[in-house]
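Page 42, continued from yesterday. The earlier attempt failed because a stray header line got pasted into the input along with the sequence. Redoing it now with the clean sequence only.
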Amino acid sequence: MEKEAQRIKEQLEKELNEKLEIALFGQSGAGKSSIINKIIGEKVAQTGVETNKTLTAKKYEKDGLIFIDLPGYGTKEFKGDRYIDEFGLENVDLFLYVVNASAKLSEDDVDLFNELKRMNKTVIIIVNKTDQLWEDGVSLEELKKRKTVDIAKQLGLSYEVDSEMLTSNSALLALGAMIGTTLFNNSLAGMGLAALISNLTKNKTDENNYANEKKENELKNYGIMIIFTSCKDNSGFDELYEAIELNLDNAKREKFARRAKILSEKVLNQKREVGKDIVDKYSWLAAGNALNPIPGVNVAVDLGILLRMFNEIKEMYGLDDEELKKIETIVEVSNPILASMIKNVLEWSTKEGLMLLLKNVATKVAVVNTAKYIPILGTMVAAGAGYGIAQYAGNEYLDKCHQIAKTFLEENIKYEK
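This time it went through. C-alpha cells are written below.
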C-alpha cells in the first residue's frame, strides 16, 4: 500500500509539473489572441496586435498550459530553419493555424504550414469569425463547405473540385494522393472535405457508396483537421477542444482538460470525469498516509491531502475564492441554493471547515486513529478507512464545484479576473 501511495504521489507531481505548449500562427485580425483568451478564460492576450510585424513570440501561461503567439513567418529576419530554431518549434506539442473566415490564406502562412507538416507536426486549421460568414440565400453549412474547398485549393490541392469530379472513385483516389499527409476530418465539425465528398456521393449506387466510404476512411488516417469557430458565440469550441485532446498523449490531454475554460456543458461534463480521477488518486494517497505509524500525525496529513485535492478541483472548474465571495453576496437572496453551495466550497477548503465535513464520517476517522496500531487487520482497516474518507470528501466537494460551474454556465453568471 505504501509503495502504491508513493507511486501515485509521484504521478500527481508529474502531472502538476507537466507543460503543454500550443503555438498559434496566422495573419493579424484572424483572432489568435481572442482564441487564447477564450481557452484560458482570462484576458491575458492583447487583441489587435499585428504579429506579422513583430519579431518576438508572445507566451501566455496558466498552470502549465502555455500558448505561444508566433510572429510572422517569411520575414527577412526569420527564414526557414532559423525561424524554427529561434522559436523552438521542435518542442511545441501542437499548432493552431488561425484563419479569418472572410480572408484568403497568406503565402507565408502556407509556407510555414507546409514546413510544419514536413516536420511531422500536428496542425489544426481554425477558421475563425464564422459569425461573419454570410451570403444572401446561402446557408452557413454551404458557406463552410465552400471555405473548406477553398482552403484545400490554397494548400496545394489544385483540382477543380465540383460535384461531378467528387462522385467518381478515380477522382477520390487522385484526391487522396494529392492530400498525401493531410486529413480533413468530418467527425469534428462535419464541414471537412471528406464530409463534402460524402454528401455529394450519397445518391450513387450502393457499390459506389461503399467504395467512396472506404476511401473516405483512408483519408482520415493522415494529417490535419479544419475547425470552424466564433469567439463571439463560442460556436465550434467543443470541436476545437476535442481536436486538441485527440492529438495529445494522456498526460497532456488531462492537463488541457483541467485548465481549459468551460464554454459548454460538454466541456463541463468532461471536467467532472477528470475530477473523478483526481479524487481516486488522492484517495489512494490518504489510504497510504493512514498506514503511517506516527501518533498524532495521521489526521493532519489527511487534512493536508484533502485540502490539496480540493484546491485542484476548484482550480479545474475555474473557481476563485475572492470572486466566489462576491457572487455569494450578490445571489444570497435571489439564488439561496447557489449561495449555499458557494458557502460550502469556501468553508470546506479551510482546515476548520474540512473538519466539519469529516464529522459525517467520524466513525471512519476514529478507526484510522485506533485500528492502525493493531497488526495486519488494523492496518487493512485503517487503509480502507483512509480511502473512504478521501472518496467521500472528494466527491462531495467535486459535486458542489460542478453544480456551481453548471449554474454559472446556464445562467450566464460571469466575472472578470
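Notes: The longest helix spans residues 377-410.
Reminder to self: strip header lines before submitting.
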